[in-house]
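Task 17 of the worksheet. Students: predict the tertiary structure of the chain below and write it out as structure tokens. Keep your answer in the requested format; marks are given for formatting as well as content.
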Amino acid sequence: MLREIPGGVCAPGGFRAAGVYCGVKQGVPADGPQTVLPSARGKYDLAMILSDCECSAAAVYTLNRVKAAPIYVTMGHLEDGVCRGIIVNSGNANACAPMSHENAARMCQLAAQATGLKQEDFVVASTGVIGQTLNIGAIEAGMPGLVSALSQTGSDDAATAILTTDRVKKQTAVVCTVGGKQVRIGAIAKGSGMIHPNMGTMLCFVTTDCAITPDLLAEALHEVVPRTFNRVTVDGDTSTNDMCVVLANGRAGNAQIEWKDDDFAVFCKALHQVCRQMARAIAGDGEGASRLVTCTVRQARSEESAERLGKAVVGSSLVKAAMFGADANWGRVLCAMGYSKAPFRPEYVDVRFSSIAGEVLVCQKGTGLKFDEELAKKILSQNEVVIDVCLHEGEHEATCWGCDLTYDYVKINGDYRS
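Model answer:
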């Protein structure tokens, strides 16, 4: 049985975390990086997650052809499938910038020196503005304080430190039983803009005390990501820095998962719940968003076609704008489905809008129905709106997540670098 628990990435045994302010966005002087000691403290911008022992490790990365330097450094460090910790900064993406690879490697080196570990023991990630030189001096100055702040209650600070334009922290944890032992899985994530389903659409760091081989941990992650993070879209842009990393330190004491047996299935189910919750949180916190938009496509010919249709609906700018205006313009839903390139028969389609305020059938067998416009507006004015599409063609379904498109999205991205 799965149940939610507090603690985020520190809920699993043997993990500590911390977040501090070091001044990454103070900028880099013309004569190069230097230590920055600002008099005024700001939002936390440097985080670490550390295991007390070696972990099996797995990751998935952005499919954007332009990848940030931290991704390449992390890829190299995870070639052997083991890791000890994660070092991450917000405020600067360290992508397409001078000294980007050197600075990503330097972050790992600084983390290693401060913890007495090896440089290769760390995953590194960055998020923020692209093209600006990373203020490595600020990170170097902040590293000792970050390490001294590590604690079993540090998930909240770490979750804060990785945010950029996000409005809320994103963290969760669950407990399940694997091999007769209680196994915990926790996560923190960030993601608000430049999000489109092409891997993980954000940064997400997952910890677990489950004992599992690196190969099966990677298989579990690759099973879960396509059905969670890859079904999220905010604005159609795939980031250069997207990364989802899972660390498993085995502290739960279960017999190590080495085969795709019942224990593996339980672990995958728990991992799916954690990632699904993070995916929903990211979609609901889209830049400028006022509501989470969920689209479930049912009775499809295949899961793949249902997913493609659902993605087209939540990714449509016109659908998103209609959701912002609480306008039950179901024709935009069918239009988006029509250009998705997924097979379906429009004359079989039913469309229903629902929320905690009720539900309303607006289209049946591809044709519009008379409905209560006031009720529809009330339904579409809630914090989460569900677009239910029934194809009447098969037994498969998929759920995708997005958000509405508001004036604030343009405002946020019109001056993102300032």
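Marker's comment: The CA atoms of residues 178 and 263 lie 5 Å apart. Residues 3-284 form a domain with the L-amino peptidase D-ALA esterase/amidase fold (CATH 3.60.70.12).
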